[in-house]
Write a structure and sequence with these properties.
- The structure is a single chain.
- With about 280 residues, the chain is an all-alpha fold.
- The chain has one domain.
Length: about 280
C-alpha cells in the first residue's frame, strides 16, 4: 500500500509520462514542439471547468478528460496548419510563441480565474485513472509503429523528400502527428488539474514544455519506451537524491550531462530498423 506521498509522486510521474508521449508523437514525424505546455493548459482548464462545482455542467470525469484532450487536439491542428509548412528552428520558435500566447490568454481570461488561477477543482484524479491512461496510450503508440501511419511518421522523420516521393501526404500526416501530440497533452492537463485542485497560468510556462522535451531527448525517441524511461529518470531521480540536500539538483544536472555525452541517442536508443 502506497503512502499519500508515494501516491502523489506516482501520479505526477504518470502525468509526466503522458507529457513525454505528447512530445514523442510529433517528434517521431520530425516535428519539434516546445509548446506542449500550452496544450496541457487547454486540456486542464477545459476539463476543470466542465467538472467545476461552480458551473451548471455535470460532465463525468472520463468525458471531461476526453473533451479537454479534444479541445487541445483541435487547437493543435489549427496551430499546425501554418506551422508545419516551416522547418527547423523556425518551427521551434513558432511553437514556443504559441505556448506563451496561451499562457498570456489564460492570465487575462477572468472567467477562468485569470492571473489568480482556478480553484475549487474536484479531486477526481486517482492513481488508477493515471495508470490506466498511461497503459492505454503506451499500447496505442506501440501498435502505431507497425501501422501505415506510424511508418509514414518514420519516413518523414528520416527524409521528407523521399517520403513525399513514396506518395505520403506530408501536410496531412504532420497535422495528425501534431494534433495527436496536442490531444495527449490535453489529457495530461486534465489529470493534473483534478489532482492539483488548483491551476494558474504560471504552471504551464516554457519550463513545462522544456521539461517534456527533456523526457524524450533523455530517454530516446526510437519507440515509446524512450519517453517513459526519460520521464521516470527526471521525475524520480531528484527524489532519490534528497539526501544530498542543496547539492541534489547540481548532481542531477551532472548526470544529465553525462547521459548526453555517453548516450547521445537517449537511454533507449537501439536502431529503429530493428523494429517492425
Amino acid at each position: 500500500m502506497l503512502s499519500s506521498y508515494q501516491e502523489s509522486i506516482a501520479i505526477f510521474l504518470g502525468v509526466n509520462v503522458l507529457m513525454a508521449f505528447s512530445v514523442y508523437v510529433p517528434t517521431s514525424a520530425g516535428l519539434i514542439s516546445l509548446g506542449q505546455a500550452g496544450f496541457m493548459a487547454i486540456g486542464a482548464y477545459t476539463s476543470a471547468y466542465l467538472t467545476s462545482r461552480f458551473t451548471s455542467f455535470d460532465v463525468p470525469f472520463g468525458l471531461a478528460l476526453f473533451l479537454g484532450g479534444a479541445a487541445a487536439g483541435i487547437v493543435g491542428v489549427l496551430v499546425a496548419a501554418p506551422a508545419v509548412r516551416i522547418k527547423g528552428i523556425y518551427l521551434i520558435i513558432a511553437t514556443l510563441g504559441f505556448g506563451e500566447i496561451v499562457r498570456v490568454l489564460f492570465v487575462n481570461f477572468e472567467p477562468l480565474g485569470g492571473a489568480s488561477g482556478l480553484a475549487g477543482i474536484k479531486p477526481l484524479t486517482t492513481l488508477s485513472w493515471v495508470v490506466a491512461t498511461c497503459i492505454l496510450f503506451f499500447a496505442f503508440l506501440w501498435r502505431l509503429r507497425s501501422t501505415p501511419l506510424g511508418r509514414a511518421f518514420v519516413a518523414i522523420h528520416e527524409d521528407e523528400t523521399a517520403a513525399e516521393a513514396m506518395g505520403i501526404n506530408l501536410f496531412r500526416t504532420k497535422l495528425m502527428a501534431f494534433g495527436g501530440g496536442a490531444f495527449i497533452a490535453g489529457i495530461a492537463g486534465g489529470l493534473y488539474a483534478h489532482f492539483a485542485l488548483f491551476i494558474d497560468p504560471s504552471q504551464f510556462g516554457f519550463s513545462k514544455s522544456a521539461e517534456a522535451f527533456l523526457f524524450v531527448i533523455l530517454g530516446g525517441s526510437v519507440n515509446p519506451l524512450g519517453p517513459v524511461a526519460g520521464a521516470i529518470v527526471v521525475t524520480l531521480l531528484p527524489e532519490f537524491l534528497r539526501f544530498l540536500q542543496d547539492w541534489r539538483m547540481s548532481f542531477f544536472a551532472v548526470l544529465l550531462i553525462a547521459c548526453a555525452v555517453w548516450r547521445p541517442g537517449g537511454l533507449i536508443s537501439y536502431r529503429r530498423a530493428a523494429h517492425p
